[in-house]
Amino acid sequence: MQKRETFSSRLGFLLISAGCAIGLGNVWRFPYIVGKYGGAAFVLLYLLFLIIMGLPIMVMEFSVGRASQKSIARSFDELEPKGTKWHLYSFFGIAGNYLLMMFYTTIAGWLLLYFFKMAKGDFVGLNADGVSAEFGNLMGQPVLMTVFMVIVVLICMGVCSRGLQNGVEKITKVMMICLLAVMIILVGRAITLEGAAEGLKFYLMPDFNNLMYDSQGNMILGEAIFAAMGQAFFTLSLGIGALAIFGSYIGKDHTLGGEALRVTLLDTAVAIMSGLIIFPACFAFNVAPNEGPALIFVTLPNIFNEMPMGQVWGALFFVFMSFAALSTVIAVFENIISFAIDRWGFSRKKSVLINLAAIILLSMPCILGFNVLSDFQPLGSGTGILDLEDFIVSNNLLPLGSLIYLLFCVSKKGWGWDAFIKEANTGNGLKFPKGIRFYVTWILPFVILFIFIMGYLNKFGIGL
Ligand code: PHE
Ligand code: NA
């Protein structure tokens, strides 16, 4: 058997895990969900879920990966007690990775396209309405969207085909650092815009009424809590083995609690900063914060129009945003590719080629959904297929998958607490506190289930 690849350094591991975590979830999804559910109060809820749910589950995913030395394709087979069926989850997990890519590649393509548009000066001199109209036009151009989606898929499959160290690890390092630098500068510009104060208030001063009722006075608390949980799992890449695989590529010299904390902090920093850029801009340029998935595309170009050398800053910003999205796509592709390698013994090359074609095809419904299939609105009004795919992943597969990882790690019928704790706490660094065993075993699973059920009831109006 071939020797398993490993990262060349610990920094490589941290950055790639952060690269997988930091992506559209932070710069695109976080702001629009926060805007939809009324701002600061929702942000608090989200932060709470990161700590009480996301962090422990991330430790569990890394542990399953490191102990099994396998991706989601085989990790449960490796660790489950004889005769049990935990490994069946590998198929749901991998389906989750595909489903995620079915809309993620399209949005990543929009970012890349916006980079080119910025660089070309397409937004120069447009007022806020003009900027919005540009986005509206894009929705009517499936061919253009397809071209950029295909570019995204080709770049990322290309990187993956070069293997772990040469491809994935090297590229991610540089990009993450550049992204952070540009974001800091933009926060500075955004919070000094005229009218920024209103935006900061919306984003930072909790008003719990906003969390309970929407603008028509309908009760939305249950749905908002459901959304906050989904966003917490989404942003940390939990529940479908996306991070577990990186656990399988590292050594035993650091505890996994410490590594998970670092990844979570980096991810949170980027999300919080995107809010600091976007909400001041919303209020400064009169864009409704509950605009939905279009939000960053109809606010951001306005900021650059207000900046000296805005065209340059705008291009830089969108290029690094694209990188953040690409590093996530690369990480998920790595999972998808190694699934076929680990489960069916494909060569890397064969797996890359087949998946390349598959992902392009699977991404088409999302693109056609804005235009050709736009009458199909399964979740009520919204963006049709994009919203549906996102809902299936973020509100269903990620929380339920996280629950499976959790049960696997705490239950005697699974891998079990002792084995989990031993793996998590091997190495130097922060230990997983044994004192929270009761909490993770008997409380957390019920909290997740409860929110899930309540969210569904609310979503379909049977609600609390
Ligand atoms: N965490 C990624 C982001 O924020 C999205 C993701 C979710 C990636 C689940 C993998 C698995 O963009
Ligand atoms: Na994220």
UniProtKB/TrEMBL annotation:
Name the keywords, alphabetized: Membrane, Symport, Transmembrane, Transmembrane helix, Transport
Q: How does it sit in the membrane?
A: Multi-pass membrane protein
Q: Which cell locations does it reside in? A: Membrane
Q: Name one Pfam family in it.
A: SNF
Chief location of this protein? membrane
For the keyword Manganese, the answer is no
Give a GO molecular function annotation for the protein.
symporter activity
Which InterPro entries does this one have? Na/ntran_symport, SNS_sf, YocR/YhdH-like
Q: Which GO terms describe its cellular component?
A: membrane
Q: Where are the transmembrane segments?
A: 39-65, 86-116, 143-164, 176-204, 224-251, 263-288, 312-333, 353-372, 392-410, 438-457
Q: The organism sits in which domain of life? A: Bacteria
Q: Does the keyword Membrane apply?
A: yes
- UniProt family annotation: Belongs to the sodium:neurotransmitter symporter (SNF) (TC 2.A.22) family.
What is the protein named? Transporter
**Can you name the source organism?**
Eubacterium callanderi
Give the lineage: Bacteria, Bacillati, Bacillota, Clostridia, Eubacteriales
